[in-house]
């Protein structure tokens, strides 16, 4: 189970890193033109950048804190934060009728739930 949790955290970290780099460094006008990025045209650019930075922090929190043994309890805490982020993403995409993206967000949410459950519970780093 520990290996499965590491794999799930790694996959979710790659997703967070990709989204974070995109939202932080790609101009909002270009993001708005991308599939699934239309919502960025409806919000302030600072909000998009803030989400990007939070996703970059999530990528680090899902893997690096445990790999470097620096506050590994941040792994499940980060997973819970990711759950909240995915609920917001599902609401946003659902309102826009982008139901395929809602389904993708559900998969990411499920990975985060698995990580939070596993790292707070049976495979805790504190045990």
From TrEMBL:
<keyword id="KW-0472">Membrane</keyword>
<feature type="transmembrane region" description="Helical">
    <location>
        <begin position="56"/>
        <end position="87"/>
    </location>
</feature>
<dbReference type="Pfam" id="PF13564">
    <property type="entry name" value="DoxX_2"/>
</dbReference>
<protein>
    <submittedName>
        <fullName>DoxX family protein</fullName>
    </submittedName>
</protein>
<feature type="transmembrane region" description="Helical">
    <location>
        <begin position="99"/>
        <end position="120"/>
    </location>
</feature>
<keyword id="KW-0812">Transmembrane</keyword>
<keyword id="KW-1133">Transmembrane helix</keyword>
<dbReference type="InterPro" id="IPR032808">
    <property type="entry name" value="DoxX"/>
</dbReference>
């Amino acid at each position: 189970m520990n290996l499965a949790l590491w794999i799930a955290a790694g996959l979710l970290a790659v997703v967070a890193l990709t989204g974070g780099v995109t939202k932080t460094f790609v101009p909002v006008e270009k993001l708005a033109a991308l599939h699934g990025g239309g919502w960025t045209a409806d919000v302030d650019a600072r909000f998009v950048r803030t989400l990007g930075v939070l996703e970059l922090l999530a990528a680090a929190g899902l893997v690096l804190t445990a790999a470097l043994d620096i506050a590994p309890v941040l792994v499940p805490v980060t997973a819970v934060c990711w759950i909240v982020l995915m609920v917001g993403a599902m609401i946003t995409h659902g309102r826009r009728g982008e139901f395929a993206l809602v389904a993708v967000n559900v998969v990411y949410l499920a990975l985060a739930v698995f990580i939070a459950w596993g790292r707070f519970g049976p495979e805790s780093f504190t045990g």
